[in-house]
Write a structure and sequence with these properties.
Elements (H helix, E strand, L loop, with lengths): L1 H22 L4 H20 L4 H20 L8 H8 L7 H9 L8 H95 L4 H29 L3 H20 L3 E6 L7 H22 L4 E7 L3 E8 L11 H11 L4 E5 L4 E8 L3
Parallel strand pairs: 1-2
Antiparallel strand pairs: 2-3, 3-5, 4-5
Length: 368
């Protein structure tokens, strides 16, 4: 805003100088002096944004314009409106009053100067309104930016707190699981092992005096040990997640992360009994899908990727297909060769097709 107002003042000062040269007046030194004083005072007005000092300087500038108008050159009156409008800055109700005040000199100055003054007052009033509107808009945008920055800081802090909460929750869940596992081993297995140990100690004492009783105690210890071993097996079986859960959940997590990172939809469906897929087969499927997605994101320029897992009677088929540009002549790089080697390690194979988009099919034999 200050830049526009100062530019308007400089234009008027240039006009005054030009008019003075054309009029061939003789008091040049006073003209230069008044212009320099006026320029310095108004430069100070631009430096002081707000406060009493700025108001005092504006009044001083008005006085300079008035005195110069009376004593030096009549065109100095053109500088008056802008200073009057500056008095009404940040005072919405005073703007129109200042416009009325700035028009009053028209009735006291005669000749062509009155017309020029009227046009100048009207033009600079519009200039002042535009500058004030832009200043208000800039201030609003700055406030919006500040608020956005604060919101981002708040969100960042909240995100950090949520991440910390998740880490603490995971750690707590691990501790609870360890505590539960420890208690379960103590309750189900500890008592069995203690009972077997007591039976063995008793059999040891009766071994030379009552062999029949010692034999009975040894058999009891064997039965208790078998029961304990079975409880250990059942406990570990219940703790260990089935391979299909580990594989499918890990795969879904990979697909969600890839879709979010690259902003591309990835559809996933599966058919058949996933229990038939072993750990090593899940590992191959996961790594081949990862390699296929990597190639798609780098080269295919696709907008959609579909992934299907079919568990058939004799084989397990995994297909990764995109709707990208495809490739008629396929050159097998390290990625495709690596997928083929992984599949071949369990007597499987990989089939790639680039005629309609790009698809990678991994075929693995189903183990009975």
């Amino acid at each position: 805003m200050e830049l526009r107002i100062m530019s308007g003042k400089l234009i008027l000062m240039g006009f005054i100088i030009y008019s003075y040269i054309q009029s061939e007046a003789v008091n040049l030194s006073w003209l230069v002096f008044c212009l320099l004083v006026y320029f310095c005072v108004n430069l100070a007005i631009a430096i002081f944004k707000k406060g009493m000092a700025k108001k005092v300087l504006i009044i001083l500038s008005i006085m300079i314009s008035a005195v110069s108008f009376l004593e030096v050159h009549s065109l100095f009156i053109l500088l008056l409106p802008l200073n009057l409008y500056e008095c009404a800055e940040n005072m919405p109700r005073s703007k129109w009053a200042m416009l009325v005040v700035s028009v009053i000199p028209v009735f006291f100055i005669g000749g062509h100067i009155a017309a020029v003054y009227g046009l100048t007052a009207a033009f600079h009033f519009l200039l002042f309104l535009m500058a004030e509107h832009d200043a208000a808009r800039i201030e609003k945008l700055e406030n919006h930016i500040d608020q956005t920055r604060k919101d981002m800081q708040t969100l960042s802090k909240t995100l950090h707190e949520n991440e910390e909460y998740i880490r603490q929750s995971e750690y707590t869940f691990k501790l609870e699981e360890r505590s539960r596992l420890s208690q379960e081993i103590h309750d189900k297995i500890g008592h069995s092992m203690t009972g077997a140990l007591i039976q063995l100690e008793a059999a040891k004492r009766l071994l030379h005096t009552d062999k029949e009783k010692a034999s009975e105690l040894l058999q009891n210890a064997i039965n208790i040990s078998k029961d304990g071993i079975e409880k250990i097996r059942l406990t570990l079986k219940n703790i260990k997640p089935p391979p299909e859960q580990m594989g499918i959940h890990r795969l879904k997590l990979l697909l969600d992360e890839c879709a979010a990172r690259h902003q591309i939809p990835i559809s996933f469906v599966h058919y058949g009994d996933l229990d038939a897929i072993s750990h090593i087969q899940w590992k191959i499927i996961f790594e081949n899908i990862t390699e296929s997605l990597t190639n798609t994101m780098k080269y295919a320029k696709a907008t959609h990727v579909s992934i299907e897992i079919h568990v058939l009677n004799t084989l397990i088929k995994t297909e990764v297909k995109d709707n990208g540009k495809g490739q008629e002549k396929i050159k097998k790089g390290m990625g495709i060769i690596g997928m083929e080697e992984r599949a071949a390690s369990v007597n499987g194979q990989v089939i790639v097709d680039g005629s309609n988009g790009f698809s990678v099919n991994t075929l693995l034999p189903k183990h009975e």
